[in-house]
Amino acid sequence: MSRQKLSPSPWVFDPGTWPPEDCVAAGADLEPGTIVEAYRRGAFPMPHDGLLLWWSPMRRGVLEASGMHVSRSLARSRRRFTVTIDQSFEEVIDACADPTRPGAWIDGPIREAYVRLHRLGWAHSVETRDDEGLLVGGLYGLSIGRLFAGESMFHRVTDASKVALASLSEVVGDDGLIDTQWRTEHLASLGVEEWTRDRYLAAIGGLVEAEPPAIWA
């Protein structure tokens, strides 16, 4: 799916003006150009209590694609699943948005915005399927150059989301970076590190200008 050119955003995301807090701004819009520009500058949208907020964590969760930790048990799990890419984007985002999940935050406007970005060739999904072809896990996010900004993932079978992340790391490549927003203990076990905001912003400057993986060019 080739990427389409986006209209520029009227909103300015300037890290030099951001406070030393995870939440850096409120308002703006969810137009494709606005969302992509925010990610290029190191921020991402996440609503809270009906407000559209923009975040750039002081301690950012990142996975260097070459640093993905595949344990022996995960390696065995990978052989049990089939991985597909961009075949079920809406099904993946709907599974991630399940309101019964703890910390559910993906609302209607967010869903609509990322489905639109998918149709424009910027948002992508990685799906994990069982031996019957049923979707049992996956993740979605934005591909901007060699940066993959992960938004959310889910699993219905043990290790299904881990398999999706391991496959994503191979797509992104050794010189790529996966943004996980924050680091959790679960993500840390897979190789996710915690970087300062300054380190993250310095790292993505070149990554977002690089050529994306061929599959998403």
| CATH homologous group name of the domain at 60-194 | Leucyl/phenylalanyl-tRNA-protein transferase, C-terminal domain
Helix content: 25-40%
Whole-number average pLDDT? 95
Instruction: Give the distance, in angstroms, between the N- and C-terminal Cα atoms.
Output: 8 Å
What would your notes on this structure say?
The protein has 217 residues and is α+β, with helices and mostly antiparallel strands. The protein has a domain at 60-194: Aminopeptidase (3-Layer(aba) Sandwich). It is built from 7 helices and 10 strands. The chain has helices spanning 32-41, 72-78, 89-96, 108-119, 160-172, 185-188, 197-207; strands spanning 23-26, 44-48, 51-55, 59-64, 82-85, 123-129, 135-144, 147-155, 177-181, 193-196. The strands form 2 sheets. Strands 5-6-7-8-9-4-10 form a 7-stranded mixed sheet, with helices on both faces. The chain has a 3-stranded antiparallel sheet with strand order 1-3-2. β2 and β3 (51-55) form a beta hairpin. The chain is globular and about 50 Å long. It starts with 22 loop residues before the first strand and ends in a 10-residue tail after the last helix. The relative contact order is 0.19.
